[in-house]
């Protein structure tokens, strides 16, 4: 019995090694058929993928075009344009009067994006413009920081898209705040729930953007969204402390200041001036603030406000 089992085992092992080479040779025709079938399937899938990919390619192209126009993008065409401008305008001399320009050129040479340097140089100028608008013209807004930072957010998202996103956030936050007041929650939990509503609204905008082909909203960064949320929160706080019309007026003035500031940031001639004459730009900005600080006359808005008294 043992010999029979041993013989059977040897037979099966031998049969396995004999059959295996023949099996390796016989499916050659089947393999060729399978390869032909796979190739045809791959070509069909490639055609289908190409058909599906064509809208994506168009969207990618639009996104790239948007990035090329965005000065806040560190890898867009704006960076290359400013780098070329520096190369086309080399330093004629190196001395202590252009130390900052020398440092900027060296930083750009080492890889620092020139558009970021331009934004850093222009940000104090934008802040000075907002301060002058407050002290000389009479536009209030939500301080100086929020309009200045909001201007960068509008440059990144696009002016129309950024304002539209802000209005959506406000229209969602207003009824949400009224609903939450009924529960009499403390400030921090109430604010957290309010941000929950706002986050859902922003998520809805981002999900809706591909359907309505809003390329700018599809590439919006989290920084811009947080700035818009911050402005909406300030609007709600102002509404709780002042009259509704005053809160709306403050918000409109803030958006107006941010809109004008975004035009300053996008002014190409000013960007080039900031790169070639950073020392002069910083001194001009400092001088503007001293002049504004020493201004003690009536604001332009006050002339219209007290016009009847002045005529008497």
Beta percentage is under 5%
Q: Given the C-alpha coordinates, what overall shape results?
A: flat
By DSSP (H or I, 4+ residues per run), the number of helices equals: 15
* Largest pleated sheet: none
Give a verbal description of the structure.
The chain has 312 residues and is mainly alpha-helical. The protein is built from 15 helices and no strands. Helix 5 crosses helix 11 and helix 12 packs across helix 13. The N terminus is likely disordered.
Outline the secondary-structure elements.
Blueprint: H1 2-25, H2 28-69, H3 77-88, H4 99-109, H5 114-137, H6 145-157, H7 159-181, H8 187-208, H9 215-218, H10 222-241, H11 244-266, H12 268-276, H13 278-294, H14 300-305, H15 307-311
Task: Note the main attributes of this structure.
312 residues, mainly alpha, flat, disordered N terminus
Question: How would you summarize this macromolecular structure in one to three sentences?
Answer:
α5 (114-137) packs across α11 and α6 (145-157) packs across α11 (244-266).
